[in-house]
Design a protein that fits this description.
disordered N terminus; homodimer; DNA-binding
Chain lengths: 162, 162
DNA sequence: ATCAAAATCACCCGAAAGTATGAGCCCAAA
DNA sequence: TTTGGGCTCATACTTTCGGGTGATTTTGAT
């Protein structure tokens, strides 16, 4: 029930909006058309409203188009010349695969390590809060930790994070 | 002049389109409304057309909505001669004092960075949970952060943690 | 084409984290 | 001695986390 709603949420919402607006217009009909004969105003209003609706729809419906353009930002790190061998090239792919950590989970972990909340991560990745929770839960299980702070800690130790 | 046109090209185009469509509708008016009295159909058509127009507009105008995942690439700079003295022996006292962070708060921060929960920190320091909460709250304020994960992040950047 | 894994999202619920406020204790500096 | 800062703790409240479950959709590989 709730699922079915959430799935077609946009469509239903759009339908409802349309119906509501049409009702409103129907009511206005007797004020504008009959009263003033200002048919053009009426039409103009409709046009504007539905143009806005279309824009809104497009923005909502359009897939976030995650083209993941990677902007490389150089950060100068002062290292005491010790264990530089393993940690130089970002996440350690081997370790990643060994733990069975997926791409998305890794992204979540990375954002976690920046101290973002689940909600902020969700916004950043254009997914819902629940999705982030799922990812993080799986992540914790795979990393065998209980908290996000531990996950970050372990992630850094394992070279999953840069 | 040409610049001004090219800048507002889309807007002008939109205006033109709108005018054109309104003209078209004006013409159609005498076919639909008068002929059939199918006002609703007329309105529906307008709604659909302008919804489509809105969608088109949005898709044209909106930037390709690129999610820029910022991947920070570390550039290792080895400076063994200078600041090894500061980082090897625990927290940077100067930074500590500058932020007005007390001893206890620092201990809490250190345990936080190990991924311990507030309760665990409380047990470790032989104080109550509430005390740890108070310390961490004060800490967050002084570090200007909102969450423990951010506190750890910032703490490491500032050299408050080793 | 189909099967499995990954990704997405929802809902519920309890636990942990964090906020706000107030208060008592101790100690050192004014 | 009083005053302020650090430390301790409490209560009450809101928000965020995390676990558990179940579901659908996308995608990749066979």
């Amino acid at each position: 029930m709730g699922k079915l709603f959430s799935k077609n949420k946009l469509i239903i919402l759009y339908g409802a909006s349309l119906a509501g607006i049409l009702l409103l217009l129907k009511w206005l009909e007797f004020r504008f058309v009959i009263m003033d004969h200002s048919f053009e105003v009426y039409i103009g209003a409709i046009a504007l409203i539905f143009t806005g609706l279309g824009i809104w729809l497009a923005l909502k419906l359009t897939k976030p188009r995650i083209e993941t353009i990677i902007v490389e930002k150089e950060v100068i790190v002062i290292k005491p010349a010790k264990d530089t061998s393993a940690e130089n090239f970002g996440p350690d792919e081997g370790a990643l695969l060994k733990m069975g950590i997926s791409k998305r989970e890794c992204e979540v972990l990375a954002l976690m390590s920046e101290g973002l909340s689940n909600q902020e991560i969700a916004d950043r990745l254009f997914v819902s809060l629940n999705t982030v929770k799922t990812h993080s839960s799986n992540l914790f299980e795979k990393l065998e930790v209980k908290r996000r702070t531990q996950a970050v800690e372990k992630g850094k130790r394992l070279g999953l994070l840069l």
